Recover the amino acids of this structure.
């Protein structure tokens, strides 16, 4: 928190001398956030347990006792956030703006590093916008759950911020979106772990095309298509020799979403047919479908997952939240020829999570309590289909207490 205080002090000292520039405006925002949580067992939960995803499988010791069946919990404030929205002079008929947003979520296992959450510039016309920079992945979209947990619905709701070029066009009640996306903090999996090199070597960014319809009486609905194309390797070590190889894994994903906003309640839902979207905090990845016996060059097949969630909230000052998410492993389109696979949660057949929360909301304050049971069905991979069979279940019970002060 000392770094955040020093950063605020430095900005406050700097901007009085510069904020008087003609045609520029500056608006600071952010919050201080504290998360107190308890889990009944070990989980897949990055950012020191703050970003909760799903319970880990049983891990028996020599006596058959489950090493992962141990409770854990902690209290953190490093997800506190600071942002700055700016507007500037027009460029022709285009209105200009920019955003910079940071927190201490860090990279990898470091939670003391100031990191960029968003940093972009935008040009706005009456019907269209061009955005250049680092912001929310289009699969996160305009429909996402209203809940207390930092993961915001992951691993059922895509969660990712990435560098991108985005164009949006509004025609009446319809908004069209086209994006080209690269990777930086949220990375795909591959032979060298999670890395940016697979999309960098691909020379092909992710692409997203989608449309949203807003009715004007509370309804919003839309759908989109996403493409990712990775190069897992550029060389292969085969029979003690190194060969240059030309490998590529390409996958398409589809999503649809809907939201209704009433006077003091909301309903939202999203469903995806997801392929290799592990870099968006969804369960997914890919496996090996063929190996060239001459040089070890591999072909790949993406895992397909059906993922859906629903969210309902009621109230304003006193607010109730309900969330339910479900993921099913549908296997691979081609048979697997190797047990090696790349991704997250690929030994999961199904995952079901529910979430019940209550929050007390005042101007600049939110205090809440959340209970989230999650059950994961683990098993063995059927090489012919990529599906998970002979399953057993494990359940985690998570309790979260939250305090936030907005400014």
């Amino acid at each position: 928190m000392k770094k955040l205080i020093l950063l605020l002090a430095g900005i406050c000292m700097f901007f009085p001398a510069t904020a008087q520039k003609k045609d520029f405006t500056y608006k600071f925002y952010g919050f201080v956030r504290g998360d107190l949580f308890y889990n009944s067992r070990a989980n897949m939960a990055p950012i020191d347990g703050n970003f909760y995803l799903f319970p880990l499988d049983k891990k028996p010791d020599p006596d058959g006792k489950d090493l992962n069946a141990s409770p854990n919990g902690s209290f953190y404030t490093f997800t506190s956030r600071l942002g700055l929205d700016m507007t500037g002079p027009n460029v022709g008929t285009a209105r200009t703006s920019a955003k910079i947003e940071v927190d201490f979520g860090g990279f990898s296992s470091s939670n003391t590093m100031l990191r960029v959450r968003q940093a972009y510039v935008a040009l706005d016309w009456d019907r269209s916008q061009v955005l250049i920079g680092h912001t929310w992945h289009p699969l996160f979209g305009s429909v996402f759950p209203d809940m207390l947990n930092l993961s915001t619905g992951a691993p059922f709701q895509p969660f990712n911020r990435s560098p991108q070029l985005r164009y949006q066009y509004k025609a009446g009640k319809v908004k069209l979106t086209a994006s080209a996306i690269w990777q930086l903090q949220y990375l795909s999996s591959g032979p060298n772990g999670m890395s940016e090199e697979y999309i960098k070597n691909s020379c092909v960014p992710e692409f997203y095309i989608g449309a949203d319809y807003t009715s004007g009486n509370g309804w919003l609905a839309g759908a989109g298509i996403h493409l990712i194309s990775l190069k897992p390797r550029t060389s292969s070590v085969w029979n003690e020799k190194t060969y240059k190889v030309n490998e590529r894994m390409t996958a398409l994903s589809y999503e649809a979403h809907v939201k209704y906003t009433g006077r003091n309640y909301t309903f939202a839902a999203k469903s995806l047919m997801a392929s290799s979207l592990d870099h968006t905090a969804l369960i997914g990845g890919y496996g090996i479908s063929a190996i060239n016996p001459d040089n070890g060059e591999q072909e790949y097949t993406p895992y397909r997952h059906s993922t859906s969630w629903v969210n309902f909230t009621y109230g304003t000052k006193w607010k109730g939240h309900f969330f339910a998410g479900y993921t099913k492993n549908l296997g691979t389109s081609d048979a697997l020829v190797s047990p090696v696979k790349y991704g997250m949660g690929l030994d999961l057949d199904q995952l079901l999570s529910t979430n019940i929360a209550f929050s007390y909301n005042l101007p600049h304050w939110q205090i809440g309590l959340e209970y989230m049971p999650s059950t994961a069905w683990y098993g063995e991979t059927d090489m012919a289909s990529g599906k998970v069979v002979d399953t057993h279940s494990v359940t985690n019970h998570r309790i979260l207490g939250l305090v936030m002060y907005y400014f």
Notes: The first strand starts at residue 25 and ends at 39. The domain at 84-94+122-406 is CATH 2.40.160.10 (Porin). The two ends are 16 Å apart (CA to CA).
